Amino acid sequence: MSDRAVLQQALDRIATLGARQEPAAYEVDGLTPQLVVAPDSPAALQEILSLANEAGLATVPWGGGTQMGLGNLPRAFDLAIDLRKLNAIVQYEPDDLTVAVQAGCTLGELGAKLGAHGQMLPVDFPTADRTTIGGLVATGLSGPRRYGYGALRDLLIGITFALPSGQLSRGGGMVVKNVSGYDMMRLHYGALGSLGVIVQLNFKVIPKPRAERTVVAAYRRLSDAAEAALQVRFSQLAPTAIVLLDALSAQGVGLEMPGWVVSLRCEGPATAVQRQADRISEVVRPAADRVEVLEGHESERLWTEVGGSIGAGRLGRAIRVRIGQTPSELPRLAEEIDRARTGLVVELSRLLDIGSGLCYATLAAERDEDLQLAWQRLSGLGLHATLLTAPPGVKVDTDVFGRQPAGLAVMRALKETFDPNRILNPGRFIGRL
Amino acid sequence: MVVAEERAVLHGFKGHDVPEFDVIRSCVHCGFCLPVCPTYRVTGRERSSPRGRIWLMKSIAEGRLDLLDPLFEDEMTLCLNCRACEAVCPSGVRYGEILEASRAQLVQHRPQTAKERLFRFLGFQVLLGDMRRFRAANRLLRLYQRSGLRALARRSGILRLLGMEHADRLMPEISDRFVVADGSFYPALGERRGRVALFVGCVMGTSYAHVHEATVRVLTRNGFDVALIPGQGCCGALHVHGGDPESGRRQARRNIDALGSPYIDAVIVNAAGCGAMLKEYPHLLRDDHDYAERARAFSAKVRDAIEFLAERGLSAQPGPLPMTVTYQEPCHLAHAQRITRQPRALLEAIPELKLVEMAESALCCGSAGIYNLLRPEMASTLLDRKLNNALATGAEAIVSANPGCMLQLQAGLRARGERIPVLHLIEVLDRAYAAAPATRPAEALAAG
Amino acid sequence: MDRQALQERLLRIVGPDGIIDDPDELLVYEYDASDEVFAGHHRPDITVLPRTADQVQEIVKLANEFGVPVTPRGAGTGLAGAALAVRGGILVVMTRMNRVLEINERDGYAIVEPGVINLELSQLTQPRGYFFAPDPSSQRACTIGGNVANNSGGPHCLKYGVTSNHILGLEVVLPNGERIWTGGPAPESPGIDLTGVLVGSEGTLGIVTKVMVRLTRLPEAVNVLLAAFADLESASQATSAIIASGILPAALEMMDHLTIKAVEAAFHAGYPEDAGAVLLIELDGLAEIVAESADRVVELCRGCGATEVRVARTPRERELLWLGRKSAFGAMGRLAPNYYLVDTTVPRTKLPPTMRTVEELSREYRLRIANVFHAGDGNLHPLVLFDRFVPGEIERVLRCTTDILQYCVDVGGTLSGEHGIGLEKRDYMTLIFTTEDLCAMAGLKRSFDPRELFNPDKVFPSGFSCGEVNAIRQQAMAKRLGIEFV
Q: In this protein, which residues make up the domain named FAD-binding PCMH-type (chain A) (predicted)?
């Protein structure tokens, strides 16, 4: 039998193992798969994977498709596995503050279920009704609330994943403190599904704060704004998120304020939140042009929008770069980014996650070459840089995960162990793994 | 499959003063003692930690290590017996006890050289066996120090030849006057609050006679009669720590005979090492039919001067003493007797005196009885560390409460050319009283 | 192994002061803080005490060359035998690498060598307004490197999270002798989260030579409460009530009667000796919130039948209460010469029935069991007391602890919450993991350490091999394909 015939045979068999979907809707950087299948049980997924593995099918696990801007250009794309039918909330123990959920469950569905018991996962995305939990973990995206609650990584207590071999393995468990065996959760967090397909995730959840307020302060100068934000960060006050936005960024999240805007989120019991917001306002007021306090829904809405401006969804004629830098150096980084676009016709918006030490720069331009040049310049800044999303043309001849980290050899060894035939997201992860 | 072991036969230890196996195995090797052990901190080797040493003892008891393995002896003598480990041990392992027993085992079973036997005889029997002989020897030493003989000896290099250069440096300056337990009685000043006996000891009565005098002044000023009851001798600590518990027991019986009077409220000690020993007489004499019970009654009355004053409160207000001091904790006060808050409370009761804590104040200074003579290298490493910490505070005086520590610190300071004094805490208190207006009515002052 | 040659080469790396090869001295490296009855004695062939990362790297390269096992060790305070050189070889003691290299106040992190003692780091950073949040009870003696290896917990992990949440980056010597930095002061370093994988790997994937830790800001206010109850059950209910109320204490610890007695004898911490159980509750944060929460906690405890609720007024009182709690394991030596530590975590709501079961098993096996644990996160520590010289007791301890573990697993718990699997608990791994689960972990191990020289025989059950799994998988595959396997 020819290779092609083997491949076709495998695809035919796989097609019987789940619902077939229209390939056109599953484009990754300009490539569409030959087959899209949506298994409705872990067993079916295992079987699909094992067949794909034997036939060497280039496979992309697919969640809500909302963060598909992330990743290097795929080497090939034969099969997409749509995981949205694996969307059960497997076990929810409100009194234990733990939940086990299948990878295809959306953030919105899970949020609603948790919300009914006054609990939550502290991540905000405007695409919550489409973004899946599995996708979030695989891409390793967490918002600025990680400052107060930890990233999703820190809340993960258990995982089930399927390997290309068809083997189903677990790590962790359903308890909040566990050192039995290796931390398989962290192995898969942010690994872009390159080591296995996430089937189930267990989290510890957080009691939903009874109230929230956001202190918003506008400054003419970046240095004043940064100083205010850093001062709060350095104090004993305990906001759950601190971000600094330039004017365009602020506009993007619905804040009509000129100059630089500092946003600080306070969450907790009502009276405590009020006092905390008051105290924070006092700290940030001296050099500010304007200080406002947003309450309740207004505050919540702002942070959902912020979540939208840090994601890895496709942006059309724009790129988004995430750069890691220590919080105190972030303001300088913001200026360096501005300088880096000199000579390029690009529109720039910057959002600094002062709490955590990340900068999100979104640059728009008509020509791929300009965007490519911008990424090249930005990729050398800070401690590390990731091209979160870009048009396919910009991704040519570069690694969107930036400079090669020191541990790349180990990462290669891990890939070799778990996915020896390189069928999972081939070429898309760091070092084109 | 694990099966219950036969109760271990104590292979390696035999004869009298065998380290108790139940004490050895009460160590669950949790490791809490490691960071507080001075020798472990210096060497970083497990063998030089209390946990390691206990494991060596256990290995001997279980027949896995020979009692006469040079490693064991080396560790038993490298240990300062500072007992910092005991103070932090959650299991309450009586480390000092099994260490001293192990040393006694070594003395019993290890062939001793003629030089060692002579040293032990001269030191433990001749010198410390009788306080009259001790004072006579001290007079000779004073002659040596004052007559120009020392200067000559130092110049001639004969000390180096005899290997006594180090010992000479550590030798205390012998006082002009001695305090002798001769039956003197000093009545309380003001309202009488009780009657105490002062434990005179060896070096405190000769080199630190002035501390004894200060102690008497402070106690009488605070309303206590002080008696220097005759018949008392050396506390026996050097014997017990040196592996000769039998001689220690002789001293203990004599002290109990002399000081066991029901008419005194407390036996006051101002040398932390002696105080710790006196409080441990019940263990030392546990197998002595005639003395076991008396030892318990006796030890119940033993108090360090600092402990006593803090417990009873100062009835006289000290005067102002405008100086900055730092406090060096004697191991046998802080660890063996767990007296740590009281010294600070007394210092804080002195107006205008400023106490600046040094880093690692509870880490041994390396003196440890005669340790500095036996293990000079480790002793001087620890002394350096101690002096660095003490001098970093910028204090005008180092305050301590044990003659061994004070000698060690003074020798170290001299070698460095530092001029700051080392004072006994009671001396500081005495100076503060000297500064107090004598006519002012005594105010009751709670301390401790 | 050419021992002589290895010794000589090691000597050249670490110098005469850094190598221990006298078999008698090596006796003191055959144990850690785990009970010897279960962990056994394991004497390494050679112990080395390196002072620099370069030396560690050279040692690892040498071990590779000679094909000898390498076992990293910190202060030896671990309770699962993870620092024991089970297959001999080189024991690498990291305690001499104990410098604090950098404290960055502005961004709240520090870079330390792995031999730094946990508590000393907090003491050093406290005057600058920071502390290192993971605070295992052995924090006075244990090292940061050991914390990293075990992903150590501690009372304050209830609010602040375990070690893994506080490690920003690691410099590590990998089994192949390569030395790399993972992570860094900014989050989301691209690629696989090697830092996260290394934390808690019990020294089986490499030796950490530098640790970048997150420092936590000291809270504005701290309040420690002590609540006494008649029995464990009512104290457990109070625990559930507090967690359910949405208050997140910094720590929520429980001690039973037996533990209270032992600890009081050791430190006179001021626990009520007649209580059946006490809760130690620490609240911290903004002053107003702490005050408010404290009132609410007192109310909740009273509602669950607390006989007494006390508030530590001075820092010294607070310190004493914590000293008692943190010395509890060591204090077991006062109750019995041996104890076996069970370290399971159960879902919080399962605490009361679990405590009942432990009590029943204690009676059934005629063994005293002391309980002192992190109630807030469901991490139990039944300490089964015994005397190894009493005939038959060891077998009863084994059966009793297995029953406890099995019960905890049945209600959804796990084997170890914070002390690690090491040697002592590895054979229980099959209670919670399938062969396929373990196989994936073994794959992870092999990716780092294909020659299996690093801390061998730990974590995985004895005799575990992935070969069997491959056979099972082939059979499954054959079945699906309708082929008969012979």
A: 28-208
Residue A13 lies in a domain: yes
Domain with CATH 3.30.43.10 in chain C: 3-93
A104/A200 same-domain check: yes
CA nearest A159 in C: which residue?
Answer: C437
pLDDT tens readout for residues B271-309: 999 999 999 999 999 999 999 999 999 999 999 999 999
Number of domains in chain B: 4
**β partners of residue B194:** B224
Domain with B227, as residue range(s), is 185-310
- Tell me the chain A residues in contact with residue C104 when contact means C-beta distances shorter than 8 Å: 326
- Are the Cβ atoms of B46 and C35 closer than 8 angstroms? no
Q: What is the CATH number of the domain that holds B55?
A: 1.10.1060.10
Q: Which of residues 104-163 of C touch B (CB under 8 A)?
A: 117, 120, 138, 140-142
Is A111 inside a domain boundary? yes
Cβ of A238 under 8 Å from any chain C Cβ?
Answer: yes
pTM of the entire predicted model: 0.92
Q: Nearest Cβ partner of B31 from C33, C120, C334?
A: C33
A279 in a structural domain: yes
List the single residue in B with minimal CA-CA distance to C388. Answer: B4
Cα distances (angstroms) measured from residue B67 to each of B39, B51, B80, B387: 21, 17, 20, 36
ipTM above 0.95, yes or no: yes
Query: Do chains C and A touch, with touching meaning 3 or more CB–CB pairs less than 8 Å apart?
Result: yes
**Is CATH 3.20.20.120 what the domain over C100-217 is classified as, yes or no?**
no
pLDDT tens per residue, range A261-285: 999 999 988 888 999 999 999 999 9
Residue A418 within any structural domain of the chain? no
What's B383's domain CATH number? 3.40.50.11810
A186: alpha, beta or left, given left = phi > 0 and alpha = psi -120 to 50?
A: alpha
Q: Does C63 touch chain A (CB under 8 A)?
A: no
Any idea what the CATH number is for the domain that residue A256 is in?
3.30.70.2190
**Alpha-carbon distance B102 to nearest alpha carbon in chain C (angstroms):** 17
C to B contact (≥3 Cβ pairs closer than 8 Å): yes
- A48 and A94 belong to one structural domain: no
pLDDT means per 10 residues, chain B with 448 residues, are 42 89 93 96 96 97 94 95 92 94 92 78 75 77 71 66 65 75 91 95 86 96 95 92 92 94 94 95 94 96 97 94 96 94 95 95 89 89 96 96 93 93 96 78 37
* Domain C3-93 coded CATH 3.30.43.10: yes
C265 to chain A nearest CA, in Å? Answer: 31
CATH code of C221-410, in short, is: 3.40.462.10
**Which residues on C lie below 8 Å from A402 (Cβ)?**
190
Instruction: Indicate if the pLDDT at residue C475 is higher than 70.
Output: no
Task: Verify that B337 and B306 share a domain, yes or no.
Answer: no
CATH code assigned at A353: 3.30.70.2740
Chain C residues near residue A237 by CB distance under 8 angstroms: 286
What is residue B225's predicted lDDT score, i.e. its pLDDT?
96
Residues A358 and A328 in one domain: yes
